[in-house]
Specification:
CATH class of the largest domain: Alpha Beta
Number of helices: 12
Strand order of the largest sheet: 8-7-6-9-10-11
Order of helices and strands: EHHEHEEHEHEHEHEHEHEHEHH
Number of strands: 11
Structural class: alpha/beta
Distance between the termini: 31 Å
CATH architecture of the largest domain: 3-Layer(aba) Sandwich
Helix content: 25-40%
Length: about 350
């Protein structure tokens, strides 16, 4: 669908003339979402909406280089422009070359730093949420309590681009899984506030193994010790520990072929949703209404007792600690089999 606004793509300024020896340059649309795995996956419906809404455009995504396998799997992006910053900060600059973007879309945050980063490239059109410190941008208001997938789709609909928050599935990876049919246990998370105690993960892993299930433990680049400790406490062999940060394509294959995924509210939980792999997500301090799996889908259970807390806290959040190993194990038992 072409955005139905007074300045729709077919009336945008034409690219600069080229010599007869050069092929015409397609119009370019730049999207900023220089965040992590979960953020990229929550933004997939918006990216696909832009792909449909701007046919013939080259869609460029400014995002971390290591996300390339998932970016390609979305089918919505023509080129990855490597961009990142510590935490959830906005990159200091973008290595954009050539004429200004015909359209720039801020899927990074509510501004103003992300707004200003894109505005500095002088795009013909800029889609972003309204912010009092960037009064030149007319966009919708930002609602802090909105679910992340819904938020970006609403932004695009405000600009006339039809978007479906449910359009989030990824195709099955071509790469084989290193542990097909296993229960994947991921004890890590981006902050201590979102990390369920390792001894509780180990208790669930040990119970699942006692029932005859293969259990594997994964961990990010800085979580080798955590993953090894959980596996050792659960009595798992070292060969079933995939720590140190699996390459993203291999992690995607592992999740896609898993029996189920047990994790906190972190990137691998979103990967399970994207692959329709049954999952149990341990939520706290952020409620699932803002970052959790689609409500009502029996393949995904989000455990949450509230209240909401500080996602950047230095200790496991009290809401997370209200979830017991027995509750997590019961939730895993209630999951349906993987969709194949």
């Amino acid at each position: 669908m072409v955005p139905a606004t007074p300045t729709a793509p077919d009336t945008a300024p034409s690219p600069a003339p080229r010599t007869s020896s050069q092929p015409p340059r397609p119009p370019r649309l730049l999207v900023l979402r220089a965040l992590g795995v979960g953020d990229l996956l929550a933004g997939v419906p918006a990216l696909r909406a832009l792909r449909r809404g701007f046919p013939g455009y080259e869609i460029v995504l400014a995002a971390p280089r290591e996300l390339a396998p998932l970016v390609a799997a979305t089918g919505a992006v023509d080129r990855l422009l490597p961009a990142s910053a510590p935490g959830r900060a906005v990159p200091g600059e973008l290595a954009w070359a050539g004429p200004p973007p015909d359209v720039a879309v801020d899927l990074h945050g509510n501004g103003p730093p992300s707004h200003r980063l894109l505005a500095a490239l002088r795009p013909a059109r800029l889609f972003a949420f309204a912010h009092p410190w960037t009064p030149g941008i007319e966009g919708p208001n930002w609602f802090a309590e909105e679910h992340e997938r819904d938020r970006w789709c609403r932004l695009l609909r405000w600009y006339g681009v039809d978007a479906d928050p449910a359009d989030l599935r990824l195709p099955r990876p071509a790469e084989p899984s290193p542990a097909p049919g296993a229960l994947v246990v991921h004890p890590g998370a981006g902050s201590p506030a979102r990390r369920w105690p390792p001894e509780r993960f180990a208790a669930v892993a040990a119970a699942a193994r006692a029932r005859g299930h293969r259990v594997v433990v994964t961990g990010g680049p800085d979580e080798s010790g955590l993953a090894a400790a959980v596996a050792a406490r659960a009595g798992l062999p070292g060969t079933d520990v995939f720590a140190g940060g699996l390459p993203l394509g291999r992690l995607s294959a592992l999740v896609a072929a898993a029996r189920a995924v047990l994790s906190g509210d972190t990137g691998i939980a979103h990967l399970a949703v994207a692959h329709a792999t049954p999952s149990v997500t341990l939520c706290g301090p952020v409620p699932p209404s803002r970052w959790g799996p689609p409500p009502g889908d029996p393949r995904h259970r989000a455990l949450w007792h509230g209240p909401e807390g500080d996602p950047h806290g230095s200790d496991p959040d009290p809401a997370l600690l209200r979830i017991s190993p027995d509750e997590a194990l019961d939730a895993l038992d209630a999951l349906p089999g993987p969709a194949r």
